[in-house]
Amino acid sequence: MRMMGERKFLIGVLGSGKGSNFAVVADACRAGTAPAEVALVLSDVADAGILEQARQRGIQARFIPPGKFRTRLDEEAEQAYLEALRAARADLVVLAGFMRVLKQRFLNAFAGRIINIHPSLLPAFPGLEAWKQALAHGAKVTGCTVHFVDAGVDSGPIIGQQAVPVLDDDTPETLHQRIQAAEHELYPRCVAAIARGQIRVEGRRVVWGKT
Ligand code: GAR
Question: ∠ at Cα 128 (45, 90), nearest 5°?
Fold first, then answer.
């Protein structure tokens, strides 16, 4: 329970896509199921749906150009993202379909306070279009994972996972849709647990304490 006068737990969200995960996290905060508030949304894509979703909810939303690289932020961009997150006093950085790798300087600035959602049961199928990887591999079960971000690709300590069966007649689209439905349950639950101070990291293991 947050005491009177205590500062709200503030979240900065980074995304490159349509923003459905951002939307469920923001709505959980607004509904009070997650004791937090989304203070800021940043995107590396000027016309990303996530920016529109944020504006519709009255949340500050900014496009910050990523700079000269394709898969990461350049130094100037990194600085601009960090400044925006600091100015918004973000306690936690939530990656919601942010399609760039964060480098060490960024990770150090928010050490242990950056989380990501990935559309597979990690460590299976890291990287791009994980649902297509699962189909191509012939997996019978896949799902989604929320994890802390470290210097590797989709490799940090796992906070939570939700399984999704792969059906015989699945296409990449139908499978991705069911994974996203699972993501929309899992991400707000994990964010709420972190905001409540329930989550403890012990080496590679993340422990869910009692509320
Ligand atoms: C989500 O399915 C998320 O798992 C995936 O991008 C999608 C964003 O959707 N992220 C990755 O693949 C990162 N490796 P959204 O914009 O509707 O939240």
Answer: 50
Q: 60-75 pLDDT, tens per residue? A: 999 999 999 999 999 9
The closest-lying atom of ligand 1 relative to the alpha carbon of residue 144 is 4
Cβ–ligand 1 distance for 132 under 6 Å, the answer: no
pTM over 0.85: yes
| C-alpha pair distances (Å), 183 with each of 31, 73, 134, 151, 177 | 18, 25, 16, 23, 10
CA angle 22, 27, 29 (to 5 degrees): 100
Residue closest by Cα to atom 6 of ligand 1 = 97
Residue to mutate (ligand 1; options 21, 120, 184; most atoms within 8 A of CB): 21
Render pLDDT for 165-201 as a digit per residue (tens, 0 to 9): 999 999 999 999 999 999 999 999 999 999 999 999 9
Closest listed residue to residue 25, CA positions, set 170, 192, 140, 164 = 192
3-state secondary structure of 170: coil
Cβ–ligand 1 distance for 145 under 6 Å, the answer: no
Q: What are the helix (H) ranges across 88-156?
A: 104-109, 130-137
Cβ distance 65 to 43 under 8 Å? no
Q: Catalytic site residue 137?
A: no
Indicate the DSSP class of residue 66: -
* Ligand 1 centroid, distance to 117 Cα (angstroms): 7
